[in-house]
Records
---
Amino acid sequence: MPHATPLIATLVGGIVLAFILGAAAHRLRLPPLIGYLLAGVVIGPFTPGYVADQHLADQLAELGVILLMFGVGLHFSVRDLMAVRKVAVPGAIVQISVAVVLGMSLAALLGWSVMGGFVFGLALSVASTVVLLRAMQERRLLDTERGKIAVGWLIVEDLVMVFALVLLPAVAAGDGTMGGIGTALASTLAKVGAFIAFMLIVGRRVIPWLLHSIAHSGSRELFRLAVLAIALGVAFGAAFLFGVSFALGAFFAGMILSESQLSQRAAEETLPLRDAFAVLFFVSVGMLFNPHVVVAKPLALIATVAIIVVGKSVAAYLIVRLFRRPHRTALTIAASLAQIGEFSFILATLGTSLELIPGEARDLILAGAIFSILFNPLLFSLIARSEAKADKAEGKPAPVPVPAPKGHVVLIGYGRVGSLIGEKLIGAGERLTVIEAEDDFSGFPEAGEKVTVIAGNAAARSVLERANLGEARLLFVAIPQSFEAGQIVEQARAINPGLKIVARAHSDEEETHLMSCGANLTIMGEREIARRMIEQALPAN
């Protein structure tokens, strides 16, 4: 029996290279997505050395698309969208329209068809969910107004792209005449309508019931398998029975499942597999990329990147300002949307397979994604500097608080856990310094003689130094992100070697990680729950 088959070689080559280059990208403080794409370039047909099986890679990528779309549906929130609908819905639609017009203009200059330009512009219009959420999380903006608007905006973009994925095959199936295209669209919409009706009438009852039944069995393995069976089964059934795309089926499966009380657990249980196949999807996309386009079409590439980074950003900024939102909010949303990712790759791949866009367009989209993702952190840095200069020009006080008195307590994170800690400390009369990433966060305690509030990312040493850690006696790290918490602990330990640091953990691995970074004590929620429950059976004497 051979020790290397095309399937195994493609899986191993893709995953190992994606890990190496993803880790390198993370080390350089870049999104690992860049590393995954470059892994595909390395094992693709346009670079020397080993070439993976493109046909198998495409099939693995299809699984990645199904699980990606399932995850999008699972995290789809009508409530979040409704909260910011007045800005996000019209804003996203107008911004998509601007990007499409710009993309079609560039396509016309390059001699492509009108439909090719439309698909090209559509691919440039949608931001990457992975990149946007990471940018928001790193700056702790998800719970702020600007973060909610950006996420709502992204939801609208995703919905438009799902609709586009359904209609593009119908357009390609038409005979080129308006009548033929109209007939194909009507047929597709009828099938989509039948599928949606089936999911709302049958799926909405059966899927939650099935999941709850398996959950009551107590088998974690069966529960995980049930979630995957629902995602893959509904996607395949949608394509086989209703003639709609895998993507739409998976999206609706996730959306129906999101209404269940077990949706959070379902998301957690399937995350490792979804991540693995998402990586393979990005690798397969990278395999399609011909790096020669950078040399062969430099002006077209510059124009593509300009549409993504400048055109979309300016449009988003102006739209947000028209809705009378603050300058800072408009800048943050503009920067968040100045990149493209997953849906762009799906559209590029689909457009190429349907012969709606040339291979050159796909290469420009992929190159534009790589460069825009690389530029995105720089945009946020420039925004931070411009805000600091604006505050200084307006005569606002510098963001350095009154130095906290010696022996104070520093609390990082004022969310669900941090706010409870802060309230108790303030009630006890402790001298407290709170660090949160956003100065308009509604949950901040009121600053006073004994309470100091600092807005900033605590992972930055400069922010920690503003908290006067050298004079503090205790540091609470109450944020849930263990890797960011580890960076904070390391920085704090370097500033004050004698500081007592208490951190929050969710698993034994996180506890080990935080202790190795320098925490004196880690508190794990599950362990504390177990201790309190045991106390009821074995009360202290």
---
Amino acid sequence: MKIKKSSVTLLVALPLLLLAACGNGSSSSKSAATKGNLADKQVVNWTETAELPSLDPSLATDQISFDAMNNVGEGLYRLGKNNKVLPGIAKKTAISKDGKTYTFTLRKNAKWSNGDKVTAKDFVYSWQRINNPKTGSQYAYLYSGIKNADQIQAGKKPVSSLGIKADGNYKLTVTLEKAIPYFKLLMGFPSFFPQDQKVVQKYGDKYATQSKYQVYNGPYTMTGWTGTNNKWSLVKNKNYWDKKHVYLTKINDQVVKDTQTGLNLFQGKQVDQTVLSGTQVANMKNDKSFFLGRQARNSYLEYNTAKVKVFKNVDIRQAMSLAINRKQLVGKVLADGSTAPKGFVTDGLAANPKTGEDFAKEAYTGTGVTYDLAKAKKLWAKGLKAEGKTSATYTLTADDTEAAKKTAEFLQTQLEKLPGLKINIQSIPYKTRLARSAKGQFQLVITNWGADFSDPISDLGLFTSDNSFNNGKWSNKEYDALIDKANNADANNTQKRWEDMVKAEKILMNQQGNAPLFNGVVPQLINTKVKGYVYNTAGVPWNWKGMYVTK
């Protein structure tokens, strides 16, 4: 996840990328309950590949955190299978003819886990907190297009002027500066969830840093998370307004970074799910428990152009990218079903509204993802000469997961084929890597990004000059202008907007604003008795509501 600081506008709802369905995918939880085939014990033991960084809707930026918050929290809407907008805290919505005013009627039986009522004021407080520059929210840019959001984030207007107003406890009015066709999808995203002001102020700096310093209004509450440990549990929330349709009573979650350990736990029936890697995928792909979940997720190499002056040189960036054999990376090193990218925007995320051609294919130039060691060496020599250097040593930062370590070691081998280049690897915990990336404390870093919704702007907006997630600070005026046109001047012209984004993607790749490495997948084993869906489309993280265990 990540994106941009300027306004983001979708004109049409584009085809969604199916990511995963758990179990056989054919039985709904409702039919399972009707047929009486639910197991007596509705407990699932799940695994995560990295630590949980945060439970703060204002500050979280990563997949693990959003996965958790989608289950312990709830916004105005919930996003279900195939991105279908489902009722959340809002039971009714009225939209003005110009699409700029939304009036939400909230349900009166929604409560926080501490017994407080969930009211319109909780949304007002949360949205203002996220937009307040003092909070430091990296996801505040998603509010662009809501009245005064940009000015508030720039410190030019007070947070009280944000286009959201509570009319009593159960009516909420949101005013936009322009119609945002994907606005309802945003309402199901954790960055738009409500927050209990009393709790935030009570805990202060401790708020949401441990499970006991947070309250929950979603299907589950969290227990046992200390902020640094690798085990926690989600327990069915007795105060959740729709608890009768929540079947799992408990989800025990634990971090398992080593896939062999995960496989051993699964085969020993100690967990109901585990992620696979490398040869495990080939060995287990015919197992009845095997499931390959495809993602709108890209792993890429980011250059810190602000910290390392040499990385401002396009020949240097292009040389390093050209030295990477991505087909070998996905086929021989990862060997888990991951695919070589065509560019930064992943395959299958969006299609041309006129021709139906996939964006990744239409914007493909080959420049940013091609392997050509001979050309790489020539550009490297040219770049070093221009910078007055004959050699260079850089540190490559990566997560300490098995897949990340393999990728880092492969990149080290590939990049050191460039004469005079030495690469040192720094493997650190996921949570630490996120923090250091955000602060620009790296030279080279392997980063992951997943689309928040099914549109190229969800990826491309990330690399504008002022984007809060543009940690490497790559900057290109023409690129910025094209993204701005797509979001504003051409926002209501489907084809021009599409062309703007195609041009922007080509610039990003030709100038090597980053080096895409692979499009990710989640090969995993899932207990066949666990049914329902966990996550499904681009921008919809793990969602436990509707999952159950059969006899």
